[in-house]
């Protein structure tokens, strides 16, 4: 009997033009020798670098097992969370500077 792991993630993208976060669901099924992924299909996602590594045959991604491929997919999704947090931090700093008075209130 073959065992597998089913995982569901929210893949986030930050739209710089509208300053909004776009969410897309990604599902992974990891078996002993396979990975099946499903996603909603929003154009231009954070998994393109993983796809490029598979197509080019560079690095470990084609030499390692299915678990490494699943790791690479999850890593791409999670790494992008930090990119979004950084962009949100910059946006908050900008809004804070814009909303606070320029003169300090000294007695």
Structure overview:
The chain contains two helices and three strands. It has 107 residues and is of the alpha+beta class. Strands 1-2-3 form a three-stranded antiparallel beta sheet, with helices on one face. The longest helix is centred in the last third of the chain and has 34 residues, at 66-99. The protein is elongated.
- State Rg: 20 Å
Provide a count of the helices: 2
Sketch the topology as an H/E string, one letter per element: EEEHH
Global morphology: elongated
The order of strands across the largest sheet is 1-2-3
Biggest pleated-sheet summary: 3 strands, antiparallel
Based on helices, strands and strand pairing, what is the structural class?
alpha+beta
The count of DSSP E runs of length 2 or more, i.e. the number of strands, is: 3
Helical residues, percent: 40-55%
Distance between the termini: 77 Å
Mean pLDDT: 84
Poorly predicted ranges = none
- Beta-strand percentage? 25-35%
Characteristics:
107 residues; alpha+beta; 3-stranded antiparallel β-sheet; 2 helices; elongated
Produce the secondary structure layout.
Elements: E1 4-15, E2 20-31, E3 35-39, H1 48-56, H2 66-99
Antiparallel strand pairs: 1-2, 2-3
In short:
The protein has 107 residues and is an alpha+beta fold.
